[in-house]
Amino acid sequence: MLCKSNKNDMYYLVLHSSAKQFKDTYLGLYPKPGNWYSGYIKIYNDKSSGRYIRYLKDDEAERFIKIARMLNQENEDIHNWFASKFCENIHFTKHKTYHHYGMPTDYSIAIGTYVIDENDSVPIFSKEDYPICFFKPDSKMWSIELEGKKKYVIPHGWGQKIKSEYFNQMDDKDLSECSFSIENSNLVFRNAQNRKIGEYDINYNNRFPEEMVEVRQLWDLSDSNRNTMLKFNKYLSGTIEEILYPVALFSKNNDEVKYYEITK
Questions:
Q1: What is the pTM for the complete model shown?
Q2: Looking at the 3D structure of the chain, how many domains does it have?
Q3: pLDDT bucket at 103, cuts 50 / 70 / 90
Q4: First to last CA, the chain
């Protein structure tokens, strides 16, 4: 997607892709039944809580880490090559790759999320035709510790949500304030009054059907309201530093380039 920044009126070529050949295939890293490491998974059960953790060790763990490390460089090479072919007569002044799938450390895995420092800002995507927001966390945001350093986990998209008609006519605000937990190996949703509003079996082959979910839309991006758009999310705290508005788009959903009227 070709975009124009609201901050400096510069143009940006934004490429969004993933090494899908290493996801849902036999050689992939995603925990899919029947892939190369599914027979080597070990399980540690905690009797007091009833929770468990699945893990790899020894040669299989080392192989997993090597593949994950390779993906970062492979994605950068693919993006740089595609940009050079797509815009042969355009000179790029700078380029940066934001990784949201891989292993930040040898013992942590990121799927669909960035793992960054407080001073970093990263692009968050929404549905097609919507602008891309550069988000910067602040010190109040939920954080983790990796190798002795404070890190922030930022989703690379605003996410999907279950359509409200599946939750007894609850509105979007009610859904935003609901909580979830794991009960008897099922995913359970409860509203603000702790009433159960949904329960689903957690199974790779039993995901939410496509017609039941939709991409989360953005709130008002005007200057006065831009940084209150996250008010329903207790895990995200920060500011929208820059907005990239679409100029032209080519994606798997379109047979030709889609152009937009530049109003910003």
A1: 0.73
A2: 1
A3: confident
A4: 16
